[in-house]
């Protein structure tokens, strides 16, 4: 089995590695990160060995996931660009960096997959947008990429021009959902519900509602209408949300994500 390597072992790499451990054995992977102590801890917990340096990790991996913050990428490029070759598959999860930025940063002679996952990967419910030039990869590599990205959730192949938008739908959106759950729970606590029960109920309502969208195929507006009884309680809340600019706030958040992608390099 060709090795899967990770440079950086933070929130996202940990989540992805956890998914991969269901499909691959620890010996099929390797990683490097910034702090020795943390690397030792991950190796103890997962059995996945760590390399002595980023260059060593890059040398050993056939599939190399770059999982550092965008601001750290230029430094990592400097450390690995003389090591990586065209035989390897370089996988980026960084916001803002295009395939062409990544290829250029790594010296021009590499094959790059650009992706945008999200933290629900930690519980096997990730959503990852992926793009690459299909002509550059073998069937075996494409199959491995599919196995890799679906080991921690769902994936969709998208055109690269849409990847910054995908950032809002996959990468950033969990933060908004958590804010919604927190606010909903606050509202319920305000009216007397115990806090932990409010979190459990709000989270299950979000999970169930998401399943309704995915499994019924109905328009979200129709599903919303099914909840709003004429003269009932929900439509009063919907009116209050509209007054507070609920939907336009979310649309503005997506614009903010989209624009920030261009300022990350
Ligand atoms: N968090 C999210 O929801 C999402 C993040 N992403 C992308 O994932 C990438 C990583 O983000 P995230 O996991 O959140 O970040 P984290 O800060 O959690 O992880 C970054 C990791 O990089 C390590 N690191 C720092 N400097 C170096 C270095 N010079 N060499 C090797 N490793 C280094 C850090 O080590 P240490 O901890 O020891 O300092 C840490 O393990 C980013 O590019 C981000 O855009 C994509 C989708 C969602
Ligand atoms: O905030 C960020 O930049 C990263 C990318 C998408 C989610 N988290």
Automatic annotation (TrEMBL):
Enzyme class: oxidoreductase
Keyword field: Amino-acid biosynthesis, Cytoplasm, NADP, Oxidoreductase, Proline biosynthesis
Source superkingdom: Bacteria
InterPro entries xref list: 6-PGluconate_DH-like_C_sf (IPR008927), NAD(P)-bd_dom_sf (IPR036291), P5C_Rdtase_cat_N (IPR028939), P5CR-like_CS (IPR053790), P5CR_dimer (IPR029036), Pyrroline-COOH_reductase (IPR000304)
Domain spans labelled Pyrroline-5-carboxylate reductase catalytic N-terminal: 3-96
Catalytic activity: L-proline + NADP(+) = (S)-1-pyrroline-5-carboxylate + NADPH + 2 H(+); L-proline + NAD(+) = (S)-1-pyrroline-5-carboxylate + NADH + 2 H(+)
Enzyme Commission code: 1.5.1.2
Occurrences of domain Pyrroline-5-carboxylate reductase dimerisation (ranges): 160-263
Pathway(s) this gene product operates in, as recorded in its UniProt entry: Amino-acid biosynthesis; L-proline biosynthesis; L-proline from L-glutamate 5-semialdehyde: step 1/1
Pfam families in alphabetical order: F420_oxidored, P5CR_dimer
Location of the protein in the cell: Cytoplasm
Principal location: cytoplasm
Ranges in coiled-coil conformation: none
Gene Ontology molecular-function annotations: pyrroline-5-carboxylate reductase activity
Function: Catalyzes the reduction of 1-pyrroline-5-carboxylate (PCA) to L-proline.
HAMAP family: P5C_reductase
Family affiliation: Belongs to the pyrroline-5-carboxylate reductase family.
Protein name as catalogued: Pyrroline-5-carboxylate reductase
Organism: Enterocloster hominis (ex Liu et al. 2021)
Native organism taxonomy: Bacteria, Bacillati, Bacillota, Clostridia, Lachnospirales
